[in-house]
Amino acid sequence: MTDLLSEARRSFAAVFGYSPDGIWSAPGRVNLIGEHTDYNEGFVLPFAIHLRTFAALARRDDGLVRVSSSSKDGIGEYVLRSASRTTVRGWAAYPLGVAWGLGRLGADLAALPGFDVHFVSDVPLGAGLSSSAALESALATALNDVWRLGFDRPRLVQAAHLAENEFVGAPTGLLDQSASLLGREGAALFIDCRDGSSSPVNLRLDASGLSVLVIDTKVNHKHVSGDYAARRASCEKAARALGVPALRDATVPQLLTTRGCLDDETYRRARHVITEDKRVIDTVEVLRTAGPSAIGDLMSASHRSMRDDFEISTPELDLAVRISMECGATGARMTGGGFGGSAIALAPTSVIPQLRTMVEKEFSVHDYIRPEIFVVRPSPGARRDW
Fold first, then answer.
1. Of 15, 65, 87, 136, which sees the most CB atoms within 10 A?
2. Residue 375: Cβ-neighbour burial (10 angstroms; 0-12, 13-18, 19+)
3. Contact 336, 37 (CB under 8 A)
């Protein structure tokens, strides 16, 4: 983290020719369980990870916004008050969307100064670890401080979520921004996505001799895609057929009564969400009573549901999960929105080296891209670092 903090200061000065006013950061996240339940107003259980995005930022005396990133070429320049979904293109939509989202929630963009911002990150792009939410959350925290908005963290979650949904156009729920802004060291975050409330759940990984291993398959995913939107549309269709506000309000017995009214695909999409909500609740209860070593079956059931009912897994993710279990993992599942990205394995720390070796070997045998494999730690949420 110290290296990235220093890099953010140096890079800002190199790009803009002067020093930043401050540096803020926010983490990526792993979702322990609860996939595609967030936009169905259900339950999720993510945790913030130690990989972070840093935003070095300085106020300007005018209404201009200039954005830069160590992973992108060039500088984007925009007028703060007139930036819109039709005028901002590419990755700059994420930071400009945050400013726009803060404006939607009460910040007077016409009266506020502009800013220069430069981003540095070690959250892998396209790996299903919420690199976009880390950027949004770091900038939302920075602007809240620099503009002296006085917004609380749940309001910043709303602003970052508005940026992702309405400015960028990714039809995601609020899981990612909540984890990045509200995360706590050593704990997962049990989130009710209907009202945004959350509570920490101690993971006790070290005490249990367990680690969470991320297997980034290098199959990039994009949430701004027809596949993701189609899943959301199926869920909304099922909720209408069931006569409920959202699938969070449905039960499996209720779903069975619509078996003849729904097409098979929509039925299976709904079954995943309804059963996944139950798995999240069960996982929280097990973590609080028996501890992390007892949640493996729930994780594995979640992956099967995503593979078979929601159909968002890939051969690479399925292979990573299978090999992890064969090498002694307690549980394994894909994490994130799907269609690529990463799998996670909850495994005894002692088997991590063997597990890593076997996954790399099997990916090579199948002629897949070599995965990136690393352990993640439950870490604090967004903050000011300098």
1. 136
2. middle
3. no
Is 126:154 a contact under the CB 8 Å cutoff? no
d(CA 238, CA 246): 9
Checking DSSP bridges between strand 76-79 and strand 64-69, what pairing results, if any? antiparallel
Rounded CA-CA distance 83/97 in Å is: 9
pLDDT digits (tens, 9 = 90+) for 182-236: 999 999 999 999 999 999 999 999 999 999 999 999 998 665 567 888 999 999 9
Choosing from 176, 216, 309, 385, the catalytic residue is 176
Q: Is 308 a catalytic residue?
A: no
CA-CA distance, 117 to 91, in Å (whole number)?
13
φ/ψ (deg, to 5) at 63:
-100, 20
Q: Is 371 helix (H, G, I), strand (E, B) or coil?
A: coil
**Which two three-digit tokens encode residue 243?**
């006569």
pLDDT digits (tens, 9 = 90+) for 251-309: 999 999 999 899 999 999 999 999 999 999 999 999 999 999 999 999 999 999 999 99
For residue 74, the surrounding DSSP H or E stretch is: none
Total-model pTM: 0.94
Encoded tokens for 354: 């063997």
